[in-house]
Design brief:
alpha+beta, Spore Coat Polysaccharide Biosynthesis Protein SpsA, Chain A, Jelly Rolls, 3 domains, 23% helix, globular, transferase, nucleotide-binding, Man6P_isomerase-2_C, GTP binding
Length: 478
């Protein structure tokens, strides 16, 4: 590859986290990177939009199977329709994801440069970031692996740290790396910041596919071998590339820091003077959000009196707060969180308790997104459940039946095309149709506006796993 040849940079976005410290907004079914927490776009969308332009190829997104349609739709909303979406059947940390992306890029050109970034980090100075990425790409062409260290503004116990070494000659912002340090306690973090030798570990990396795979072959050959097999055996599913579970189960679970960054002799760090945050807690979100004159962030249906330095958010009912400071209050349709803002890192422990208690609120929202639209639970009780279904124009549910429940559909707006056994019936606004237990049925929106249906379920068992799919546009028959 000649020195004058244009550098091709492939954005690689890792979207595998659940963001449990931002519960009850962020949950496994709809994690923080898919929410618009700081702008009109989701964090995933803002991340993808940073890598738009002649310097970049279409992105690779590495995510889990459950979020595939949500991610594809969010990318489509911002005009990205040719992303390669690689599906991991189970979470295996960052090293396998980066290895898989590197192998995909190698298939096209081993000299292409990858820019790996998390889907849930915020960078406010995009133009400055791109300048630093170009500098990193030039260093990556020379066989280096570059990470980005953020100039710390305070002692932060929620971040890892990178100790700078010597300045790299002929590079404006690059240094060798002396050491990586995992999340320190407050005293140690204070000492690191005061020394001026340490940077926050952003988790962003720039390298060529060839260099990363060579280093993995040297330091983690078992991981590389198992990922090579998984990528060779992957299957194409609609516009997704799906790694098979039996292949991925054999892959070691390890972060890129432990697998490569702490071992390789090719690691450099760029000291980045950027406003950056991984939004790892409600306190972190408060810190980076625009505030009123007394330090409050108020979002949604909120009324405040004599309240200071707080983050208050309500997506549903009125949240009224009086005479408090340094708190977080978050209200969703099915949960309320109240915490000291400075202890919001501990929200993860609450989620762990909810998981142990098998509380569904730990995992899922009342609104659940599907490739055809979404449904939202409105009410439930003994042997009944009421949901609102919203079906996108031209979309349809799978052809299915239930063994334990009957369903009654009432059309609120739009026109429904309903398959009921061998019949096809048009159901209009304010009309309804009954589907007895065992009936083969399907709901389709043939119109040009969203179809809104109230679904009343009744029966002895009402969970979502009582669905037998016979046909599905979205390959969900497994």
């Amino acid at each position: 590859m000649s020195g004058t040849e244009m550098i091709k940079i492939v954005p690689v976005i890792l979207s595998g986290g659940t963001g449990s410290r931002l519960w009850p907004v962020s949950r496994a079914s709809f994690p923080k990177q898919l929410w618009p927490l700081l702008s009109e776009n989701s964090m995933l969308q803002d991340t993808a939009l940073r890598a738009i332009g002649s310097l970049f190829t279409d992105p690779i997104i590495v995510c889990n199977n459950d979020h595939r349609f949500l991610i594809a739709e969010q990318l489509r909303e911002i005009g990205i329709e040719k992303a390669r979406i690689l599906l991991e059947p189970i979470g295996k940390n960052s090293a396998p994801a980066i290895a898989a992306a590197s192998l995909l890029v190698e298939e096209e050109n081993p000299h292409y440069i990858l820019w790996v970034m998390a889907a849930d980090a915020v960078v406010q100075e995009t133009e400055r970031l791109i300048q630093l990425v170009e500098e990193a790409a030039s260093l990556a062409k020379q066989g280096n692996i570059i990470t980005f260290g953020i100039q710390p503004t305070r002692p932060e116990t929620g971040y890892g740290y990178i100790q700078k070494g010597d300045k790299v000659s002929d590079a404006q912002h690059a240094f060798s790396v002396k050491a990586f340090t995992e999340k320190p306690d407050f005293q140690r973090a204070s000492q690191m910041v005061e020394s001026g030798q340490y940077l926050w570990n952003s988790g962003m990396f720039v390298f060529s596919a060839q260099t990363m795979l060579q280093e993995m072959g040297k330091y983690t050959p078992e991981l590389l071998s198992s990922i090579q097999t998984a990528i060779q055996q992957r299957k194409t599913d609609l516009f997704f590339e799906r790694i098979q579970l039996e292949d991925f189960e054999k892959v070691p679970d390890i972060s890129i820091d432990y697998a490569i960054a702490e071992k390789t002799e090719k690691m450099l760090v760029i000291a980045a003077d950027l406003t950056w945050s991984d939004i790892g807690s409600w306190d972190g979100l408060w810190d980076i959000s625009a505030k009123d004159e007394v330090g409050n962030v108020a979002i949604g249906n909120v009324v405040l009196e004599n309240t200071q330095n707080s983050y208050i958010r309500s997506d549903d009912m009125v949240a009224a707060v009086n005479g408090l400071e340094n708190i977080v209050v978050v209200v969703t349709k099915d949960a309320v969180l109240v915490t000291d803002r400075r202890k919001s890192q501990d929200v993860k422990r609450i989620v762990e308790k909810l998981i142990l208690a098998n509380q569904k609120e730990a995992f899922a929202h009342t609104r659940c997104y599907r490739p055809w639209g979404y449904y939202e639970t409105l009410a439930s009780g003994h042997r009944f459940q009421v949901k609102q279904l919203v079906v996108n124009e031209g979309a349809q549910l799978s052809l299915q039946k239930h063994y334990h429940r009957s369903e009654h559909w009432v059309v609120v707006s739009g026109v429904a095309e309903v398959t009921r056994d061998t019949e096809i019936i048009l159901v209009k606004e304010n009309e309804s149709i009954y589907l007895p237990v065992g009936t083969l049925h399907r709901l389709k929106n043939p119109g040009r506006i969203p179809l809104v249906v109230i679904e009343i379920q009744s029966g002895s068992y009402l969970n979502e796993d009582d669905i037998v799919r016979l046909e599905d546009n979205y390959n969900r028959l497994d």
